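Narrative progress, year one. The postdoctoral researcher (J.K.) led the effort to move from monomer predictions toward full complexes, under supervision of the PI. The following entry was the first complex the group processed end to end, covering 454 residues in total.
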Amino acid sequence: MEATTEPGPEPGVCIPWEEKLKELPPIQGDAELAERVWRDVDFLAHMCIWHCLLSF
Amino acid sequence: MGQDAEQLYAERMRRYTTAMRNEKPDRVPIRPFVAEFTAKYAGYTVQEVTHDYQKAFDAVRKCAADFDWDAVVGNMVYVWTGLTEAIGLKYYAVPGQDIPAQTGFQYREPPENEAFMKADEYDQLIADPTGFLFNVWLPRVSRDVQPPGEPSTYRSNLSFLKGGMAMLQYFSDFGVQAARLRQESGTVSAISGILKAPLDILGDKLRGYMGLTMDVFEQPDKVLAACESLMPHLCHIALSGADPDKNVPITIWMHRGGVPFVSHETFDRIYWPTLKPIIEEIWSHGHQVLFYAEGDWTPHLRSFAELPEGSIVYHVDRADIFETHRAIGERFCLSGGIPNFLLSYGTPDQVRECCKKVIDGVARDGGYVLDASAIMQNDTSAENLRALTDFAREYGVY
């Protein structure tokens, strides 16, 4: 589902991988692994703040 | 009991899901949303089940085993105040701390001039909802969190750490609770995942009801845009907590987005157009949504009927369940409709009579899940709940 008002980071994202990637030296190993884990853990922060709003 | 419990669980899951698909199971499923009632029944104070969620889990398991219900919520008290205190949330009155130990937790909405989001902050919210929550909203709702630009403090850092860790622990333990309910008493965990309507959450936790009612007149386009910006996040959170097996529904807790809290125009222009697509999206993923329609949403049944057949289960609180059944019963399963005042202050005979009337009136062809009108707190009579359970188990057989 896309917002019609083009808000900031997409759902599930607090700091986009693309933004983080700019801070890193060229990735020498598995870039997909680095991206996936970054996104997975970033999602937890998104979940945490939105559950603060919705659930608690 | 392992094998027996597993068989019982399978029977109950089939019964519950068949009814929710608006079909006819072997008998009417019983799925009471018991909250602080569980504390009273299990011998705990309300403070204990609210502040120590393991006691809440224990109380639910005791009720599930003793009453032999088909499905329950793992912890319907839900707001674990150990977590809310760790974050430092200002808006809860905590049993045993701020209010008497036998009173259910209270949500304290701030006065209009102290709303957690100001009237001129819509553009900030719209531009980046998640950033707004972290940078603006959280520092206002927490006693400890410092806003960006202010010196960080030990308490501020700890609130994030303790809050995050506590939430992870709580949610993980819900999985353990579901497994124990299944293994120990063959009870189904009734719901999975949470949703609130964009306009509702804007009123509940951001602008407050008073502020929002002014905004819909003074800056309706901003309110609409804000709701639109919340939509994908709310949908995402709902799906992230949904039952992977697609058996039990995501629940939407419906508060003040309908008449008479808002006008028909606001409902038609803002509330419904920013909720309906979320429900359709969730349904496209194969999940039902339980509309926990607190209060009376009868003026909007026609709108709800626009949803795909079977996509929701509609819970009746203060509305006339027979009128609701006539309006949308062909399309959706109903639940609830047994008045809480009757369960608290009526007699067992009156409870049985009411259950008979509801089962006769709305459950004849299936598509009904027995429950009270609203969440049952500690004023609910155990004798009456027993009468409801025993009667429905016998009379509710198809």
